[in-house]
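Weekly structure sync, notes
Attendees: PL, DS, HV (note-taker this week)

Item 1: Bsl6289 protein
DS walked through the input record. Source organism listed as Bradyrhizobium diazoefficiens. Sequence as pasted into the shared doc:
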Amino acid sequence: MRGRILMSLLFHRAVEDMEIWSAASDGFSFVITHETPAGAGFHGRAGYVASWRPLYRSNGAIKIGGSAFSTFAEAEQACNTMLEYLKGLSPE
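Item 1 (cont.): predicted structure, written out as tokens:
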């Protein structure tokens, strides 16, 4: 990727009272949610779950491998890595 400027996704809180963050870039949408085995919010393995989908299609989201991550930063990095991979598949 020599000569390319890599920009990080800029996540923002998607729902004020829930632990959901979203970002979009290059035709892809990314979401990070915080899950817990019990209690309020999303239920699942404890941690941050990252997913993506094409932005302008009604496809369901695809969970990023490695989810659930221990920290938000790890989930964010996984999303950025996936974006770079997806951009590499697209014809320029």
